[in-house]
Every structure is written in C-alpha cells, then in structure tokens.
Amino acid sequence: MRQLLPLADPYGRVATDLRVSLTDRCNLRCTYCMPPEGLPWLPTPDVLTDDEVVRLLRIAVERLGVTEVRFTGGEPLLRRGLVSIVKATAALEPRPDISLTTNGIGLERVAAPLAAAGLDRVNVSLDSLDKDTFRTLAHRDRLDDVLLGLTAARVAGLEPVKINAVLLRDVNDHDAVPLLRFAVDNGYELRFIEQMPLDAHHAWKRTAMITAEEILERLSAAFTLTPDVVERGSAPAETWLVDGGPAKVGVIGSVTRNFCGACDRTRLTADGQIRNCLFAREESDLRAALRGGADDDELAERWRAAMWAKKPGHGIDDPSFLQPERPMSAIGG
Ligand code: SAM
Ligand code: SF4
Q: Which residue's CA lies nearest to atom 1 of ligand 1?
C-alpha cells in the first residue's frame, strides 16, 4: 500500500508547493539574473527527460502531498515538452494546481495549448513598459513579444494573470507607477519582488536594492493603497487594494520582510536536484538515484530527507551569509 508522508522539516513547516525548473536556458538576460553573455548551459544529458520529470511529479503528488506545481526556469517556454508535461501533471491524482512563471516570449503561440493541457495560471515577468529601459535591463528588444504574451494569457483564461516586476535603482525604478497603472487598466495583478542575491555575477548589494518600503512609498505617490484583509497564509506577497479595489498590488519583501517561517516550498532543478530553499548551498541528487534504479519509495524518502535538512531561514542578513553557487536561472525562480 502506497504511503503518503509529507515533506516536513524540524521547524514545523510542510512543503506542498513544488517549483520545477524545466531548463536553465533563457532568451533574455535580465541584469539581476544572468550576465549579458549568458551562462554555460547544462549539457542535455544532464537535464531530466520529460518522463523523468513526470515520474518525480507523480511521486511528489501521490506520496509527498504536493498540491501545487509551478513550472519555471530559465525560460520554461523553451522546453519542447512543456505542453505534454503539463498534460501529464493535470492527469495526476489528486490533481495539483498548475501554474507557470515565464518571461512571456512565445506565450502568444502556446497560451491556448497550455490552457487546453490543464495549465491553470501564469505569472509573466515584466520590468518596464518602456522599450529602451526593457532593452537595457533584459539585453534584448522583446517588449512587444511580452505584451502579446500577456494578452494571449488573458484570452486563454489563464487567470488571474499576474505580472512579476523587479525594480533596480536608476534602471527601472521610475517604472513602478506606470507598471501599476498598466496592470490596473488591463486587469493584471502586479507583484513587485525585492531583488535578491541570486545574480550569476554576485553583484547584489543590500544597500543598493529597492526595498519593499520604497516600492510602497513610490506607489503611494500616485495611488491610495489600503492593506488587503485577506489572510496571507504562506503566500509570499503582501497585498494592498489599489484606490479602494478591486484591483490589488502585491509586494514580495523577500529580503526585508522575509516569510521563511511560513515557507511551504520545495524545488526541483532541471538536472534533478532537490533544493529545500532558494538560498540553500546543498542539493540532493535525485537524478543519480533515479537513473541508478531507485524505486519510488526510495526517491520519496530521499526527497523527505532533503526537506528535513531545511534551515529555519535564508539568513541574508547574517554576516556569514554566502550566496548560493547557482544563480536564479539555474535554480528556478
Ligand atoms: N524566465 C522566467 C521569468 O523570468 O519569469 C522564469 C524564471 S525567473 C528566474 C523567475 C522570476 O524570478 C522572475 O519573475 C524574475 O524576475 C525573478 N528573479 C530573477 N532573478 C531575481 C533576483 N535576483 N531577485 C529577485 N527576483 C529575481
Ligand atoms: Fe531569463 Fe527569467 Fe532570468 Fe530574465 S529572470 S534572464 S527571463 S530566467
């Protein structure tokens, strides 16, 4: 008889939300994530096959109590098997909630097939509505593709369509208000994310980042924000009603208002490593076990052991904090 034993840690948290990175490759080079020249990509044989991903997803849902699956990357739309992976995920019992974080390039083409395969929602990353600023920040002239992708997501019913934005001082910090106006006018839910020390070139500085408080200050100059009374639970975003609602804006203060105490996440990288935290410096190699012939029970047990080793918090403010070796694009944001 198959046993359901959840992904618990010694601090009373239980992980039910799985982030799956489907590739470390990307077609943008966002300054806070990747260097302009790109990174050495994972060799193809190291990347889990579609069948391997689906097998681990089944173990996560059936044996470990995962109820939410978010596909990410790198850029997950670059993964050829994405639609069939989503379809197989939607066939799992009990069916998990399925979402995708994407830069939106190519979404115009695949939003409808993804929705038909069972994708529930998308988050599209968009840091500026100004073509020049977008190009400076992402090192590619693709703003129009992202905007087409956003519209396609809404038309396909992948709602609520959320927009993720990261503000960088003197690069796009003037975009906070136009981004919120755009989101409110078009029915998208905007969330600002504080920049985290996960860039490939380790250039992040605590003193330079735009804090949640600053973001709120900037927005408050143009909008009336009132705290949303909805229970936050394990959601990382604190939300505010915009001009009395129903539109909302979220701020994810990953650094200055961390939510580690309520974290319910577990992560699988494209090369089959379990990470118990974005900032973990150790990973647990499920790919080697899987390819070495481990059965589902053993893989589930390894996954549980990896989560039991989760630290109470990310420790960014500790003097001993060390940034993880892998950047955000390779971990899966
Ligand atoms: N390529 C997809 C995208 O951009 O949405 C998915 C992967 S990306 C790593 C996921 C999210 O992480 C994006 O919303 C991106 O803005 C965010 N992100 C990347 N690097 C970050 C950093 N250093 N700090 C905060 N957020 C970051
Ligand atoms: Fe690519 Fe997303 Fe990283 Fe930007 S944030 S470089 S779109 S993986």
A: 75
| Separation of CA 235 and ligand 1 centre (Å) | 17
pLDDT tens, N- to C-terminus, the chain (333 residues): 578 999 999 999 999 999 999 999 999 999 999 999 999 999 999 999 999 999 999 999 999 999 999 999 999 999 999 999 999 999 999 999 999 999 999 999 999 999 999 999 999 999 999 999 999 999 999 999 999 999 999 999 999 999 999 999 999 999 999 999 999 999 999 999 999 888 877 888 888 899 999 999 999 999 999 999 776 677 778 999 999 999 999 999 888 888 888 999 999 999 999 999 988 888 999 999 999 999 999 999 999 999 999 998 887 777 777 788 777 888 887
Q: Which atom of ligand 1 is nearest to the CA of 73?
A: 7
Contacts of 167 (CB under 8 A, 6+ apart): 127, 173, 175, 176, 192, 195, 210, 215
**How far apart, in whole angstroms, are the C-alpha atoms of residue 165 and residue 259?**
19
How many A from CA of 292 to the centre of ligand 1?
33
Contact (CB, 8 A) for 10 and 308: yes
- Distance, CA 10 to ligand 1 centroid (Å)? 29
Positive or negative, the CA dihedral 143, 146, 151, 154 is: negative
| 7-331 has CATH 3.20.20.70 classification | yes
Burial bucket for residue 295 (CB in 10 Å: 0-12, 13-18, 19+):
exposed
Distances (CA, A) of 156 to 53, 84, 119, 262, 279: 25, 17, 10, 32, 34
What residues line ligand 1, using a CB cutoff of 6 Å? 26, 32-33, 72-73, 75, 101-103, 125, 164, 166, 193, 195-196, 198-199, 328-329, 333
| Site to substitute for ligand 1 among 22, 29, 30, 190, most atoms within 8 A of C-beta | 30
- Ligand 2 neighbours, Cβ below 6 Å, are 26, 28-30, 33-34, 73-75, 103, 125, 328-329
